[in-house]
Amino acid sequence: MSKAKRKRIIRNTINFYGADILDSPRYHFSDKNIQHGDVSVMEHSISVACVCVRLAKLTHLKHDYSALVRGSLLHDYFNYDWHNKEEAGKLHGLRHADKALKNAADDFAINPIEANMIARHMFPLNIRPPRYREGMLLCIADKACAIKEVFSKPFYDDIIKELK
Question: 3-state class of 110 per DSSP?
C-alpha cells in the first residue's frame, strides 16, 4: 500500500469517528494552548490519533476504532494552559487526565473504553494501566508523539492541517 493511500485511510478514519469532536468549538479552544514545543494541544491530539490508527492497523488485531479515535482525540481535553502554574495547579502530569475525562464526559457521549483511555493515558506515570488494548496503544502513541514534538514537528503534520 502506498504512503499516500495509508495517510488517506488514517485521515478518513479519524474524520469518520471523530467528526463531532473535530467540529466542536470548545475542542478548537485546545488549539490555542501549547502542548509540547510549538505544537498545540489540538495538533498533539490529532497526531496521537493518527499514530494510534496506524499502530492498530499494524497489529492486525481487532480494535474498536471509534473508541480508539475518540479517546485519542480527547485524552488531553483539559482546556487550560498547563504552562501557567496558576491556571494548571500543581502536578499537571498526574492530574490532567481527570480534568480531560470530566470535560469529555460533559461535552460528548463517551463510552467506557474511551473513558478508561482518557483516565489512564499517563501510564506508567499514573500507576494504573489501561484496561483495554486501545488504551495501551494510546499510551504508546502519546509518548512517541510527545518526544517527537519536543524535538521537531508532529507526526502526520499534513493530516493535522487537513483535519483542523
Answer: coil
Three-state DSSP state, 150: helix
- CB-CB contact of 10 with 53 (8 Å): yes
Q: Where do the H-state alpha helices sit in 23-127? A: 25-28, 41-59, 65-74, 85-88, 92-107, 112-120
pLDDT, tens digit, 9 for 90 and up, residues 47-99: 999 999 999 999 989 999 999 999 999 999 986 665 556 665 565 555 788 88
Element (H, E) at 35: strand 34-36
For residue 30 the three cell numbers come to: 485546545
Closest CA to 50 of 27, 17, 91: 17
Q: Give the model confidence (pLDDT) of 16-51 as tens digits.
A: 999 999 999 999 888 777 676 788 889 999 999 999
